[in-house]
Design brief:
Distance between the termini: 31 Å
Number of helices: 1
Number of strands: 9
Largest sheet: 5 strands, antiparallel
Order of helices and strands: HEEEEEEEEE
Strand content: 25-35%
Helix content: under 10%
Length: about 160
């Protein structure tokens, strides 16, 4: 009885006993366990190809009182120290809001010279994205395969 109960707790805690993402072939679960190197939510990519770190940042040059945030996804190798290669395409985040309908926010690769020397970084235009808890779904195409991975900061 104890073994069965322990197994049930593990399944619920770690993503539903092998549940997949929204697309066939996506065998990753919601990320709630660790913070990434930039303090964001770590999201495992399909087939253990790496991780994405989802976070909110104040736009460069914005005043500290600005309510606008930039939604950022960094695509990292499993070592969490270097950018994933090749980088994904068609990156977006579907973000849930408590007071309005969910919104799909496109993210573009950041390639400017002042991009904090951060290859693998994708960012949105500034917007009203600050929500707690942050609940959403990372969508992208990686090596020709579309995927969608749910995430939350678990607060």
């Amino acid at each position: 009885m104890r073994t069965m109960m322990f197994g049930a707790v593990l399944c619920v805690t770690f993503g539903g006993c092998g549940g997949a993402g929204s697309h066939p072939g996506a065998s990753v679960s919601t990320s709630t366990l660790e913070a990434g190197p930039h303090g964001g939510i770590l999201v495992p990519l399909p087939e253990q190809k790496g991780l994405a770190e989802v976070s909110l940042e104040a736009p460069q040059g914005a005043s500290k009182r600005s309510s606008k945030q930039t939604l950022v996804a960094r695509f990292l190798r499993p070592d969490l120290k270097s950018a994933l290669e090749p980088l994904p395409g068609e990156v977006s985040i579907k973000l849930e809001f408590p007071d309005r309908v969910a919104e799909t926010i496109p993210l573009k690769p950041v390639t400017e010279a002042n991009s904090r020397n951060d290859p693998g970084r994708f960012a949105s235009v500034p917007g009203d994205y600050a929500v707690d808890p942050m609940i959403g779904e990372l969508k992208a195409t990686l090596q020709g395969q579309a995927f969608a991975v749910p995430f939350t900061n678990g607060r």
